[in-house]
Amino acid sequence: MPRLRSSSLLISQPFLGDPNFERTVVLICRHDEQDGTFGLVLNRPSSLCLGDVLELPEGTPEVLARQPLLLGGPVQPDTLHYLHQRPDIPEAVPLGQDVYWGGDFHVLVGLLLSGDMQPEAVRFYAGYSGWTAGQLATEVGENVWIVHPDAAGKVFTLDNDAFWQAILREKGGRFRALSNYPLDPRLN
Q1: Is 129 exposed, middle or buried (0-12, 13-18, 19+ CB in 10 A)?
Q2: What are phi and psi for residue 187, nearest 5 degrees?
Q3: pLDDT category, 188, cuts 50, 70, 90?
Q4: Can you give the residue ranges of every domain in the chain?
Q5: CATH of domain 9-182
Q6: d(CA 185, CA 174)
Q7: Given CB 3.0 to 4.6 Å as the disulfide criterion, which of 104, 134, 145, 160 pairs with 90?
Q8: Is 70 within 8 Å of 124 (Cβ atoms)?
Q9: How far apart are CA 12 and CA 55, in angstroms?
């Protein structure tokens, strides 16, 4: 079984059957054998924007207020999380390949408002995906997930709509074939 760790991607099997994770790619942000796993679904858009859920400072540019809000997972959907490409944001957790998780939100907003950080360099998520200690390892052992190690750098390079299919194709071999698996094989 591939080793689970921060910066790995979890790719859902096409026949998973769980609407929360159907054709999703989850970035593991924290994995601990004792405390469990915290991750963010990377490719589940919502109909909301950042300005819809946060009271932003007066004069906030429209481009920031209209920043898309993705669904990070079914756990605590009223919490906000973010991934970005700035190593200089205090308390941000490095996940590898120029991807950082969290950090001082006021510094992040300040960088965006000043133009020192482009909106494309950050992604916002409502909620998260979580597993208790041992739960994710069990699911991986049962082939619920395909583990793609050290792939955090893909966060800002792949389109949300095609992320699941593109990452499977990139893995190649039998995974390439899975990328074309129909949503409902009974309809083929």
Answers
A1: buried
A2: -90, 0
A3: low
A4: 9-182
A5: 3.40.1740.10
A6: 17
A7: 104
A8: yes
A9: 34
Condensed to tens digits (0 to 9), the pLDDT of residues 46-80 reads 999 999 998 887 877 888 889 999 999 999 999 99
In the chain the first and final C-alpha atoms are separated, in Å, by 32
Asked if 65 contacts 51 with a C-beta cutoff of 8 angstroms, the reply is yes
H-type alpha helices, the chain? 50-53, 62-65, 105-114, 135-141, 163-171, 174-178
CA distance 10 to 145: 6
Q: Is the pLDDT of residue 35 over 90?
A: yes
- How many CB atoms sit inside 10 A of residue 96's CB? 14
The DSSP symbol for 56 reads P
